[in-house]
Every structure is written in C-alpha cells, then in structure tokens.
Amino acid sequence: MDFGLIFSSIAPVFAPENILFILLGATGGVLIGSIPGLTSTMGIALLIPFTYGMTIIPSVGMLLGIFCGAMYGGSIAAILIKTPGTPAAAATLLDGYPMGQKGEAGRALAIALFSSFCGGMIGALLMTFLSPFISRMALKFGPAEFFTLAVFGLSVIISISGKSLVKGLISGFFGLLIATLGMDKVSGYLRFTRLIGFYEGVPFIPGLIGLFALSEVYANIENILKSEKVTAKISGVLPGWQDIKAIARSVVTGGFIGSFIGAIPGAGGDIAAFVSYSEAKRSSKHPEKFGTGIPEGVAAAEAANNGCTGGAMIPMLSLGVPGDSNTAVLMGAFILQGFQPGPMMYVEHLDIIYAVFASMMVANFAMLIVGMCGVKLFAKVISIERKLLIPAIMVLSLVGSYAINQNMFDVYFALVMGGVGYLLQKYEFPLSPILLALILGPMSESNLRRFMQIDNGQFWRIFTKPICVIFLVLAVASMIVSVRNQRKINKRVARSGGDAAE
After folding, report:
1. Residue range 401-425: average pLDDT?
2. DSSP for 242-305?
3. Quick check: pTM over 0.85?
C-alpha cells in the first residue's frame, strides 16, 4: 500500500473550502431527510447541476454530505411524529416514537445520532479497506440470490409482529397483496386495476406516509382537544455512558449488517434496518421490551441504515454498478466530472478513490456536528401542543406525498392508506409488516420469475447455489428463533400479569 499516495490524495479533502461544502451538504441532507416525502436521492439529484463548475473533491464531498445527513435526518421525523423521513428510517420509529411519547425524544435523537455516526464510520472504513473483496462477493448475486435475500427479509415479519404473530402475518400478507397492484415488472401486463397511478406499482412513499403519519393524525383527531402535551427531557446532545454501553453491541452489529447489505446492488437501508432490528431483538436478553421504546431498537436500525452509505459505494466505485438509488445519482456526478466508476478507477484514478474514502468519513463527522447542534431544537417539536402539531403533520404529509411525482393520485392514495392504517391500529394489527412487504414483495416476485425463466422452471436448482442456501437457512432460523422468543415473551407477560393480580 502506497502511504505517500494515500496522504497526498486525502490532504485536499481537509482544505477549508472542501470542509465547508461537505458541512453544507450534511446540513441540507439532515433537513431533507427530516421532511417526509423528500429523499436523499432527490436532494443529490437537485444539487448535481450546481456541481458542474466545481472540481471532483468538493462536488462529490457535498453530495456525500447530503447522502449521510439524510440517512440520519430520516430518524428525526420517525422519532418525533411517527413518520419516517426516509424509507430507511421506517424501523427507527418502532422504538424511537415510543421513546418520544415517554418524554425521551432528546435521548432518542441523541442515540440515533450517535448510532448513525458509528454505523456510517463502520461503512466508510469497510469501504476503504474491503471494497475489492466485497464487490467480488456482490458480483455473484443474480435473480436467485436476490429472491432468497428477499425471503430472508420477509422472515423478519415474525419478529416485528408484536404481541400476535397471526395478526403480524395477516398484515404482511395484506402488504404483499397490495404490492401486486399495477404493472407486472416482467411481462408489462396490468394486474387488478387500470388506474394510471398504479402503472409503476404502488406509490411507496405516499403509502408509507399514509400508514404511519396520516393514521396517527386520524387517531389523534378524536382526542385533539383533550390530549396532554408531552415534555421532552433534553440532558445532552449525545447519549450518556450507560446508554452507550447498552447499545454498543447493536451499533457494531448493525454497522456491519448495513455495510454488507448495502454492498448488494438493489438492496438498501430499509432492508438493512429491519434485518438489524430483528437481529438485535433476537439476540437480546429482554426481547419483550422491543417496540416499547428502548435504546437498542433505535441504535440497531440507525447503525444499519447509515452503514449502508459506505456499503452502497463499494459496487459503484469498484464495479460501476450502483448499490442503490443514491449511488446511481452519485455515479452520474462522477461521469459529469469525467470519471467513469469501475475497476479501472482503481488503476487510473486511485488518488480520487482515496479522496472519496476520506470525504465519506468527513461527511459522517459533519453529520455528527450538525446533529449535535440541532438535537435540542428538534426535540422541542414533541412539546408543541397537539392541536397545533397534528394539523401541521397533516399538511406536511400531504405536501410530501404530492412532492414525489407532483401527482394528486399519490395524495389520495396516502389518505386512503392513512384510513387503512388507522383501522388496523385500532384492532391491534401491526403496520411494520405491511411496509416490509411493500419493500420486498416486488423484489421477491420479479427475481423469482427471472430465475425460473433462466433455469427453465426448475426451482430445485435454487438449492444448488451456496448463497441461496445460506439465506434460506438464515430465514428458517430467524423464524424459529422469533417464534420461540415471542412465546417466551407472552409467557413472561402472562406470568407478570398473574403476579400483579395476586
């Protein structure tokens, strides 16, 4: 390894003007991520034209700042108003929002920030030292491997089903059913409906906003005048030592899970966050507390979705294959600057590669600084009176739904999904399995059909592929462990209820 080249390549990254651009990107990313309906992909795409006259280091640094900042920013809305600012923050609300309702919004935001930073740094370090190896592994993924990855992801439904596994499975199947609406991704045939809004499938972001934000609005409307104001306790901008010890394992595990899943083209932070959350719950000594508002749940989700930032850069830089939608847009920024991502970059432009690695690390530090400056301000949102906050959430949700495609159909769909979410919550059906099914349903169906076409309908051949076997074994093991844990939780709850009655 040429250390002289490394130091000469990363030195320009620490120039004041480059640090300023990265900091501006991180600030914009946090703001974009915290607004439901706006995504980091949208932010990166909007700023690319402004980087045309800039050199490669400040332009890419600013875009990486947006990428990292938006990943953390998504947790702000998830914790405060039960609406993931980005799809990758969907798992964060499972424990983040209950923490906010207990008056611990500041603590939850601090834990999310710390976990996001650590997960992002793990992803950046793995990107720096292991990108050639991981990219070769990612290159082995075909339709069969993606299908089994989706099956493994769907097995997580059991661990996020809450008290009733049956209701969780019903929610999951309902999500899979909705995911079949619209145009068939393989044949192009319209299924079940000819509404133009479903031509490209179910509008995912409006559906997410409806399920989590508008359902909460509907639930609060009947109590809006008599609801009490929640006061957020803010003791610091970073978690205390006791919290750090409690979440350390979840953060490290989540960072590695996020980096690995992020390196698989087509996967993303939303899948990584749910898988990490499920793993944290599976390995916990008190799995019954997950979903009630505990730090480990927030940490596992945030470390994983931020670990994806570094992981997703690996196939983009080393193979020229974007890991997700964000890196697909970033790839355009590289090409605009005259650099073609791929194996030859490691030969012809190794100095640029090292500069990108350094920029990713600086972007995570910039996100940490912006988050530390904003935690106390963000947490005050929870203290706003409900009769003022609920209408604001309603307006923000509708604007966010419209902003995706500038299409009123998405707004109507969000309103309908809000009603569905309200009814499901009223009868104690969990919403997270629906969201996970909407993410993984199309992925599993399209890749299964591609695999069957390639292998002439011989499904058994999936068991001859080592990666597929590994994912299927993990899926079965995950379901067995989750069922056993849920039975233990139910027995423990029943026992404690009996003791209380005595």
Report:
1. 85
2. HHHHHHHHHHHHHHHHHHHHHTSTT--HHHHHHHHHHHHHHH-S-GGGTTS--HHHHHHHHHHH
3. no
